[in-house]
Design goal:
- It comes from Anaerostipes caccae.
- This protein has a single domain (2-156, 187-270), classed as 3-Layer(aba) Sandwich (Rossmann fold).
- 30% of the residues lie in helices and 18% in strands.
- It has helices at 2-7, 14-20, 49-69, 95-101, 116-122, 127-132, 145-155, 189-193, 261-270, and strands at 79-83, 107-111, 136-139, 157-168, 174-185, 199-204, 210-213.
- Strand 6 and strand 7 form a beta hairpin.
- The longest helix has 21 residues, at 49-69.
- The two termini are 15 Å apart.
């Protein structure tokens, strides 16, 4: 009981209770029609990160259920989760297993991290399998030594053909040609560290590595609708609900009470 009271203490806040008392996300429809669901939380305040973790857990469970029970294993509309600030959000306990099995159900994830160390901290024994389950690896640059080494190893080596010519002049002059092959890293860790900030390294399964220029978002045709393009900040409070006819009975919010650990102990001792 103490553990339950501690874990659910956040839901004793009226704002959180109002937010979670009624389902208005309609998670079942994701995968059946084109829809975008934005989970926006402040990057400087982690106190509400557990809400996004709950959404992820419910979303994956719902999508798996719909795909398996209704559409024989595959959603009609592919679902792509862009998981920015991935290490800072409470993830499902079996996320590594989800990542390995979601592809067959037309579900995919883009895991966005600052460095490899963040992934190692969360999945000490299985972090490499997370990367291995991703068909694409995009490196935008960084200043982490282990990351430089890891990217260099992923890129592999290249073969260098060397021709050496030698000539000896004189009465008994000679001429020789020596051909040899040698290997070197496609990009050494130092070269990865010094990568131009305008460049990115892309690794696609079954394809050769690609070094290309990053896309300038300010050149996008719809940048004018964002704050970077001069548009006013988006007001999430005025965003339309997924269900326009949803009604929330706020009277029942006062019908429950969450007790702290001290209060529970006090009541047990009184008995």
């Amino acid at each position: 009981m103490i553990s339950v009271g501690v874990r659910l203490a956040a839901f004793n806040l009226k704002q959180i209770a109002n937010l979670t008392c009624t389902d208005e996300l309609d998670l079942y429809s994701i995968g059946e029609k084109k829809v975008a669901l934005f989970c926006c939380i402040p990057d400087a305040d982690t106190s509400l990160n557990y809400l996004v973790g709950m959404i992820y857990s419910n979303l994956f469970q719902t999508l798996y259920y719909v795909a398996d029970r209704k559409y024989h294993g595959k959603l009609p509309i592919p679902v792509h989760c862009i998981m920015d600030e991935w290490p800072n959000v409470a993830l499902p306990d079996d996320f590594d297993k989800l990542l390995a099995t979601m592809r067959s159900r037309a579900i995919s994830c883009s895991i966005i991290i600052q460095n490899i160390a963040q992934m190692k901290a969360l999945f000490k024994d299985s972090w490499e399998s997370l990367i291995g389950n991703c068909d694409e690896f995009l490196y935008l640059g960084g200043n982490e030594k282990e990351g430089h080494k890891y990217v260099s190893e992923l890129l592999g080596k290249e073969t260098l053909d060397t021709n050496t010519y030698g000539q000896t002049k004189g009465r008994s002059g000679s001429y020789s040609v020596n051909f040899q092959q040698s290997g070197r890293e496609l990009l050494t860790p130092d070269e990865v560290r010094l990568l131009d900030n305008r460049k990115a390294v892309l690794l696609v399964r079954g394809e050769r590595p690609i070094l290309d220029e990053k896309y300038d978002l300010h050149k996008h045709v719809n940048v004018k609708y964002t704050e970077d393009g001069g548009a006013p900040p988006y007001d999430y409070a005025k965003a339309p609900l997924s269900h326009e006819d949803v009604t929330i009975d706020t009277r029942r919010l006062d019908d429950y009470e969450l007790l702290s650990a001290e209060e529970i102990l006090g009541r047990e001792q009184s008995f």
